[in-house]
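In this section we walk through a basic example: taking a raw amino acid sequence and producing a predicted 3D structure, encoded as discrete structure tokens. The instruction is simple. Fold the sequence below.
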Amino acid sequence: MKRFLLLVLVVLGFISFTCQAQEVYLSVAMPCNSLLDNNTKTLLKNKILGMLTSQGVAATEFSAIAVVPEVSINDEKMIEGGQRNIYTQQLEVTFIIRNIITNTVFNSLSLTCNGEGYSKSEAIRSAIKRINGNSTNIVNFIATSKQKIYNYYNESTSLIINKANTLAAQQAYDEALALLATYPEHLSGYSRVAQTIKKIFDKSQMLYCSQIIQSARQAYAIRDYEKASEIVALVNPQSGCAAEAKMLLSQIKKDVDNMYKEQVAIEKEEIKSKERIQSQLITAARDISVAYFKRQTQYWFFW
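The resulting token sequence is shown next.
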């Protein structure tokens, strides 16, 4: 319950996750059992982000489609020096692009890199730094992966929707929405995906509509009327708290002066266009998926 309340509170504030234009968004999912220390994980993450952006691929903090870097040590040595020993490390770094919900692997690339330093961790960090993100292998890897992702979604729309519906039937609404939220918006099957997102989101709030009302009241209490009205508008008219939502919306309207009404047009909240409603639902669904990714124990998402 608490996690859903948190999700709704950030519905209006989260915009960076939205898939816009004709683009696939990728995240970096670091395996939690990685041998790298935190500083080196950050270094590798930034290296991957640079690889993606240099090839025109947008990166996002959370996504079902992720670059998963797996690092292993092929060889390590310690060379005794006069005052300090020098360590060498040969790493094998495998970049795997996969859907972490369905475990579908789109592509992978393994590279070998060498480093040295006055400690093992310093040598590993040195090896990671030497990965050339603009190498031909990496450029081709990213381009091929992007096309494979497009092909997968074009060919597997029905399978993805069926999987999401199965998860929703198990009340795993967050996982279902996380799976659907990654679907590229410009593909022909997206209209079906959007309909499924709406259906699953509506089902999820049947259980949690009281939490939506609570978060709306919190915004109302601090006089954030626009946010409060946006949140309460997400309540399904068929849900158990629809009457309470209508009453709260009425209270908000009474407290807003005429000038503010003209500015944010709260009086139009009950007669929103289909496009506006769709946008809100998609945003809310993606916020739910963000919380799902944050709870993962197999992968570590960080920005």
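Looking at the output, two observations stand out. The first helix runs from residue 2 to 9. The CA atoms of residues 28 and 100 lie 11 Å apart. In the next section we compare this with other chains.
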